[in-house]
Amino acid sequence: MKKYFLILTMAFTIVFMGCSDQLERTPVDSLVEETAYRTVGDLQLGLNGAINGYSPNQLVAFNSIFTDNIKLGYDNGGQELNTYNQILNADTGDRGLWASRYGAINDFNRLLEAASAITPGTLEVDQYNNILAQCYAFRALMHYELLLYYGFNFLDDSALGVPYVDYVSAVALPARNTTSEVLIGIQADLDNVLALLPVGTNDINFATADFVTFLRARIALESGDYPGAINFAGDIIANYPLANAEQYLAMYRNDANTVEVIWKYDSALGANLGLFSTWNFNGPGPFMEMSNELGGLLEDSDVRSTVNIDPASVPDDNEFIVGKYGLNTDEQAINDFKAMRVSEAYLIRAEAYARTMQFGVLSQNDVFAVRSIRNTSAVMPSHTSIQTALVDILAERRLELAYEGHRYTDIKRMKSVLNIGIDRDASDCVGAVPCELAINSERWIFPVPTVEINANPNIGQAAGY
């Protein structure tokens, strides 16, 4: 979505009314809710600012560095060592995700509250409804991500999740809602999106009806609603083609092709996500590199090798620079984040097929659809059991969704069935760096930030922190 910045300049003015004893003093040196949003145009500016407050960077960084997709770079000077050593920061809730997402939720809640006091003009109704729809959509997405990382068990309706916050309050001390309660709130928000979106809404920089369907596919997979995952993913697959090799390169090299994109986060000059800097300095040398294991898995016949491995890499020396968000034709690393792509929908459906014992033709066909369009040497996989199917799907997700914020949660979702944790190649974890994260580690759940625990007695900390 385009980045717009609301710059509020306040004039500090005192108007003296001659010798009158009655001075009319209107406070203009502060911004209060009653005056912040007065028109639909104000709401639009507020929405743009609220969306701009959401960043995928924390999850992109964490999912790569904490797992088996990254090793120390040759120019590392101490950057990202805690995450690389699989240490979760209880002070910040790790990478500030808790504060970031609840801060964004608060922004969207304030917009919804302000909108309730504004009556749009006849020509503003569609814009007004779209603003409301976007608020509900992104509030749902924020709660989903929080539940995914801080919730105790996505598959258990009665497990403690996260606070579902759909109100504005400066004094509330919310407790954790259950998984079921959070999901009910999310689905209600998504219902509101569909009810409010104007007919024909199709800007992939913002939420659309397909954004809702895609998010529901993800939720269904995580919550064990596999028939739902099959149906929602199927709806996406029916409406979006997979990018061919030329289109795929254009999608990542210049943001020039979006044929398979359902939703993307739009970067622009002056409002750039800066994903390149997740692993690389602006000057020479990376501080984190692609792991040797992942670099070895990317074949020359696979277009994803060209996208993910920077041309400056020296594979023969096990030097793999992450290039997915590299320099574009303007020689600047300004890259959109393709947050929802149809290739993921294929892999969601493949996993849901496997988990419902349809791991023969159906699951392997969906994996092959993605693999064959990316890799000219691809062969049809053989899914003979739920285990062989999930191992293959996990491997394909690793290649297809590399550096897009999925690896940690993918392993977390499959670890109990496959009896695996994080298992780094020995060459990617030299010295005292841990090579494994056990299946029963407490670090599969994020800690709530210390400041939240200290301020809110109703929030229970996850075990082990």
From TrEMBL:
<dbReference type="InterPro" id="IPR011990">
    <property type="entry name" value="TPR-like_helical_dom_sf"/>
</dbReference>
<keyword id="KW-0998">Cell outer membrane</keyword>
<dbReference type="InterPro" id="IPR033985">
    <property type="entry name" value="SusD-like_N"/>
</dbReference>
<dbReference type="InterPro" id="IPR012944">
    <property type="entry name" value="SusD_RagB_dom"/>
</dbReference>
<feature type="domain" description="SusD-like N-terminal">
    <location>
        <begin position="78"/>
        <end position="199"/>
    </location>
</feature>
<feature type="domain" description="RagB/SusD">
    <location>
        <begin position="331"/>
        <end position="465"/>
    </location>
</feature>
<protein>
    <submittedName>
        <fullName>RagB/SusD family nutrient uptake outer membrane protein</fullName>
    </submittedName>
</protein>
<dbReference type="GO" id="GO:0009279">
    <property type="term" value="C:cell outer membrane"/>
</dbReference>
<dbReference type="Pfam" id="PF14322">
    <property type="entry name" value="SusD-like_3"/>
</dbReference>
<keyword id="KW-0732">Signal</keyword>
<keyword id="KW-0472">Membrane</keyword>
<comment type="similarity">
    <text>Belongs to the SusD family.</text>
</comment>
<dbReference type="Pfam" id="PF07980">
    <property type="entry name" value="SusD_RagB"/>
</dbReference>
